[in-house]
Amino acid sequence: MAEKLRAASVSIIANVFLIAIKLAVALMTNSIGVIAEVLHSLFDLVASVFAYLGIQKAEQPPDRTHLYGHERFENMSALVQTLLLVITSVLIIFEAWDRIQHPVALGMTELGIAVIALSIVIDYLVAKFLHKASDKHGSSALQADAYHFSTDLLTSVAVVIGLIGVRMGFTIADSLAAVLVALAMLFISFKIGTESVSVLLDASPPEELMGRIAMDVSKTRGVRGYHSLRARRSGSKYFIDVSVHLDSSYSLKKAHAIAQALERKLKRDFPEVADVVVHEEPTDEHD
Predict the structure, then answer these.
(1) DSSP 8-state class, residue 248
(2) H helical segments located in the chain
(3) Which of 184, 183, 203 is nearest to 195 (CA)?
(4) Full-prediction pTM beyond 0.85?
(5) Domain range enclosing 164
(6) Of 3, 88, 156, 207, which residue is most buried, by most CB within 10 angstroms?
(7) Sign of the dihedral defined by the CA atoms of residues 28, 30, 35, 36, in that order
(8) Each residue of 30-59: pLDDT tens digit?
């Protein structure tokens, strides 16, 4: 858990710094594109805090009211981030549309370009760090956070182009850049939200993963066959249950030993598996 929380902390610190420099430039330039970036980074900060709290809660052990653990707090965290992102995007689009209809003069665009260029470098480094951490730990909260920084990088490029356009006399370029920022935020919110809802609704894991699990089950010594292989995801973990066919002559002790061996094998081969429930059935019931 320490590594995941450390990654989330880096995200929070980076967002605080980005908000500070972008807000200063927004106040000096009056750029709706930069203002959109401030709101984007402000949302990212809130999202990073949710990610931190979600990871912290998800790692708590099962208790009397949450017998399967707290892993889904990560998915809830990602879903809340998505909702905040949608709200922010809509507000930016409305403001940008108003600026297109009623253009506003901008100032100190050179400073705005320089600061946003700096933020692009920061976004790239933090996004790369978070993507690596999310892949390593299978964390949906860190993955959502990584996507926020990746989107921020792309939208910052749009804002720089918009400010350059204003410098060249294309007055609505700044507002158009803000709209691009908002649309990119909506796209990424759809991606994160879809995955979060999928996990919360107990959607099946990818077929490739289920195929590998099935292969492990079928190759377990003593297992003649199986049925009702199911798995569901909770946070970064998977819960599996399966009914295996065993020789009807096996004693209860031997059947239990085979089930335990299968459970250990699945947990060893798939570190993301948190729990395995094996139901033993005699083969003559399936002949």
Answers:
(1) T
(2) 2-29, 32-58, 72-101, 109-137, 140-167, 173-200, 207-218, 252-269
(3) 203
(4) no
(5) 2-200
(6) 156
(7) negative
(8) 777 777 778 778 877 877 787 777 677 766
